[in-house]
Amino acid sequence: MKGKANGSRIEDQDALDLAADWADISQGLRKDLGHQLHSQWIKPIQVGTFCKETGTLDLFLPTEFSANWVSDRFADRLSLAWKIARPDVRHVRVAVHPGRRGMPDLRLGDLRRPANDGAPSGLMPQGGQLSMASGDFGGMANDALGLGTMGLDPSLTFTSFVTGGSNVLACNAAQRMAATETPQFAPLYLKAATGQGKTHLLHAIGHAFLATHPRARIFYCSAERFMVEFVQALRQGQMIEFKSRLRGFDLLMVDDIQFIIGKASAQEELLYTIDALLAEGKRLVFAADRAPQALDGVEQRLLSRLSMGLVADIMPADIELRRSILEHRLARFSSPTEVPSDVIEFLARTINRNVRELVGGLNKLIAYAQLTGQAVSLQLAEEQLTDILSANRRRITIDEIQRTVCQFYRVDRTEMASKRRARAVVRPRQVAMYLAKVLTPRSYPEIGRKFGGRDHSTVIHAVRLIEDLRTRDADMDGDVRSLLRQLES
User: Fold this and answer.
1) pTM for the complete prediction?
2) Per-residue confidence band for 104, with pLDDT thresholds at 50, 70 and 90
3) Domain 2-99, CATH 3.30.1490.20 — does that match?
């Protein structure tokens, strides 16, 4: 009995210690994130069990939606904060509270509510139901969920969307969809790979549309959620209410439409909904990671509807856009943190798979610096972003650099290792040395050996010279930028 009592006291003490650590962590995150985000997403977290053997700590939230949202956006920050507070915590797992995993019942609310009323509680996205809203930005229970009106993230607006050559068409089309005048093309179909900004634009359309149409009713969800609601309504004999509610919206937005593949009945209902809304002049926006014609398992009639308006591509962000996104994001931090220009350049050049990883890397770096009191530096970025950097780095070789530079300047490949000192040969060779240092992990002596056995001091001179020329000579800077784009593409 005494052993059990001691074990119980130890468990109680561990729980108290975890609670105390969480109080400190939560307070720090409140200062970092601000009162609103903290109260909406961090405050509801409950500290679960900690497994000392695996170093895994469980954090619980009341719903699957909130658990996924926090995991997607704050997992790195939570993990870092806990590791700093308790070195024995190696993994942080965000999940739904074990007692609340059941799917909530579908409640379509009172169909007699006027369109300009706030969303009834049965339609809150936190519970996984259909999201409906009017222009009431006061919000009723929606604001308490941290998603603003009708489940939209308040931070994802056109103001916070940074445009460049790769996404300007999609952004302009999205703004037109939300404008007062009727758009020329309907529906709008946004096509982009993961993390390139299509979901951001969907949220931005919702915010802007409510600003220009204060009494409008809008619906936003993923295709997967649409299917879940459809199946629930079908099982509960509420299809008439489901259809009536769905077709009563002024703006319909469905994300990740590729996940509706193969669901014949749901496809048919979506098809009829599109036809009904288009006939009444309503607005529709869809987003997917592939073009409509590439959606396998989707019947031809639905493909026809999805592609009949405007299909706007969002291409991967180039380095200029990635740099602009980082600078824009940095300016929005509530607690200013100095990030040197070489760190911004390093992140923009290295994290090139998608914008979400790029912003996540910056967030993680700044969070670590603020929580530990360290200054942001290139060394800190390389140390703390190892996983992200490794996933994004494409192994560019010196041979590839030499070949690309020779093609660009139209010189023979043998000149990279030759002893000729003609300016038409020396300058391309110096550019290639500079790029080899910037784009590869090779040391100065290693680079020198690839250029005809030259001494490391020659490589250092070339790197410094090209760095200097880029600041003074617009043509040289343009040449290097063009070569960087070619090599990183």
Assistant:
1) 0.56
2) very low
3) no
